[in-house]
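Recall the central idea of this unit: under ordinary conditions, the amino acid sequence of a chain determines the structure it adopts. In this exercise we apply that idea directly, starting from the sequence alone.
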Amino acid sequence: MSWLSPAVTKAIVFAVVSLLAIVIGVQLADPLGTTSMGLGGSLALLLLFPFLLKHHHLILALTWNSALFVFFLPGSPPAGFVMVFISLGASVLIRTINKQASFTNVKELTGPLVCLACVVVVTAMARGGVGFRFLGGESNGGKQTIFILAAIVGYFAFSIRPTSLVRAPLFSALFALGATTQIVASLVQLAGGPLDFLTMFFNIDLLSYQLASGPNSFARYAGLSRACLAIVGFILLRYGIRGTLDIGKPFRLLFFLGATFLTLFGGFRSGIIFVVMLLSALFFLEGLWRTKWAVIMSGFAVVLLVAIVVFSRQLPLQIQRSLAFLPVDISPDARLDADQSSEWRIDIWKAVLPEVPQYLLLGKGYGINATDVYLAPFLIEQGVYRNHEAAILTGNYHQGLLSLLIPLGLPGLICFGWLILAGFRVLIGNLRNGDPTLRTINRYLLSLFSVQLLFFCFIYGHFSADIATFCGILGLSVSLNSRTEPARNAVHQLEKAGPSSVGRQPAFSRTGAAATASAK
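Accordingly, the structure predicted from this sequence is:
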């Protein structure tokens, strides 16, 4: 029984509600002010707290790769990074209330992630601080530091809570399809005014590719390309190559081919290369290279290449640019645009490579002089700066290893290498010993991790952005496969005990590693 009478309880509730009403009423006098929007957003999150407490893990998966951002918070952080702290806090709260709730800790991954976070923080402090211009600091670049730390925390937010086998397909699908929100960047410009309100909730930086400028330039639908690439990833995650090629389910293959084709409208050469590399990795992991599908797919590839060679000049300019890495006849405009992009990146690499030795022991950090950033466009117009020098100024080196080695030095590179090796060990272990129902998902995650690493090292990468991809893949894999960890440990104990003790042990449920061991 409560020690407060009903009348007193009602009076307290009335007083609190009245106070909130007064505060909100005052703030509504300036509804578009920063304080008003911040207060309104905070109240909305408070009202949604019960819903977030119940579904925070699924919402984290949905927002991790999405274009949503929280506009009412300082710096407008991505929604996925805000959900990291909400989800982690909710998991800790649930664990505090329910002692039977289990936490997952993979020590192989915890070590390198903690060390990497320490390197980021120490480097930032040694180089003059994090750099929050929007909080009154004298430098920019703090966002990149926070993004790296949020990505590391995001791994723990994903992995700390095991996902049941029943929810695994939904959880992984939301993770893959969250990036479809990137299409907003294309829709806003194509639809015109009616969709402008979406810019308050979605990041539309990709719109810059679509706003063509110059006599020989053309619009590139980067948002559409990224969204369709997410659909391609979802189909492969859900069905694998075997399931996608299932003759009895023709719509899977049609959706896959259609999404792959639309990906080319972004004009990114890396898009089609990424899809081909991902298919190749999955083709190997699924063992299709030893079946009739190897001949069929080889024949299809030959026919497709012949068609590209014959009809390349009739394709839209965006698609021609996507195919510029092939020795085919394409429009001079598409060829020139692609070549200029390549030359621009090479100029960046030539300019920054001599700087690498001086940042080996202590990285440069991510701090950027705010005045230099402000003056860069004017200096480019006057010919003082060249285009690639502005990119160097912001730390955008367009090469993964450079974007890691220069800001964080050898300590950062060593920690990242440690994380990659540990990540492969965990992903391969989950594929071999995980529950059979997760085999298609585990194959895809291992393939995606491998291809993303190759891209990061040899094609294109930006460490402060790509670390979220690596941490997300690892966190998702650990969360999905945590339910089989007890059975896996039991099997290891049996193996250590020797063959004589197997017959005296109780039978395990046929899931994960236990099922594999009993089958042997």
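The chain is about 65% helix and 0% strand.
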